[in-house]
Amino acid sequence: MPERRKYKRMDVNLPILCNIKNHNNALLISAVGKVDNICLGGMKIHLPIELVPLKSRIVEYTLELPDPLTPLEGEGVIRWGYWDDTARESSFGMELCSLHDEQLAALESVLIKLVGDRESLFMTTMTN
Questions:
Q1: Which residues pair with 91 in a beta bridge?
Q2: Where in the chain are the domains?
Q3: pTM (2 decimals)?
Q4: What pLDDT, on the 0 to 100 scale, is given for residue 98?
């Protein structure tokens, strides 16, 4: 069954600090990586370390948003991930979970600058 995405993903190249926790909320890994696509609901992250399967793990993150340079701090949940042996990096999709209204507004403002208008941030068709 096709999934209905609510938000359109935007290509970016932004630094991110990730603190990945285990199910007991203890820190497993702290690493700096990059975000290559983002939307109002989540982001794709690359870290230069090999990770064990981390689906459903909690990530505390700090993402530097450009223009103006604003740190976006919050928590997310890893929904999928894989190790790329050629690139020597782990990639994973993270759902954003704990953005306050002002954080969401800052992220939305940056994304609107990328696409030109607010309506372009939202999906209008089914994807899978």
A1: 46, 82
A2: 10-121
A3: 0.85
A4: 82
